[in-house]
Amino acid sequence: LIGANSLSEKALALENAGQNSDLDFIKQEHDGFLNDYKYFMQYSLSDDHSTKKEALSPEMMQDACSTLLEYALMEDYTSAELTLKELGEYNISPADQRTISKIRDALFRLDWTGLKNILKEYD
Q1: How many CA atoms, within 13 angstroms, populate the side-chain half-sphere of residue 117?
Q2: Does the reported pTM lie above 0.70?
Q3: Engineering a disulfide at 53: which of 26, 36, 85, 91 sits with its beta carbon 3.0 to 4.6 angstroms away?
Q4: Is-contact 108 45, C-beta < 8 A?
């Protein structure tokens, strides 16, 4: 859906290896996959310093966290990821960046309970 075909193929290969208990393949490919994923996320959400971005207000961050909590309750990965991507359109404070990083990490691991806890703490 997002045009990361190579990343998707690697994820599928790792998933298949997990289903087939191919631990050697997983050990060999896991770190590289995570590095590729982190690079993709950094690239796709990188700041474009050529344009001035609107600052993310505390109210906007609160609204985003409320929305993300709703998605976490439904375990809706796609909508949560899109909301996080939209946050990349703003100039984000370091404190909010740390929160968003925790949210993204929990979402990536599909840790719905952890994600809900992070978002509830933001209230």
Answers
A1: 7
A2: no
A3: 91
A4: no
68: which 2 tokens?
Answer: 């993300």
Q: Which of 3, 10, 77 is nearest to 43 (CA)?
A: 3
For residue 88, which of 106, 109, 64, 70 has the smallest C-alpha distance?
64
Backbone angles phi, psi at 91, to 5 degrees: -80, 115
Q: How far apart are CA 75 and CA 84, in angstroms?
A: 15
Contact (CB, 8 A) for 97 and 45 = no
Q: Are 56 and 96 in contact (CB under 8 A)?
A: yes
For 60, what's the count of Cα atoms within 13 Å in the CB-facing half-sphere? Answer: 16
Amino acid identity of 48?
D
Question: Which letter does DSSP use for residue 75 in this model?
Answer: T
Local confidence band at 49 (pLDDT 50, 70, 90 cut-offs):
very low
Q: Quick: pLDDT tens for 6-48.
A: 778 888 999 999 999 999 999 999 888 887 787 677 656 555 5
What span, in angstroms and rounded, lies between the C-alpha atoms of 55 and 1?
28
Tokens read off for 109: 């691991």
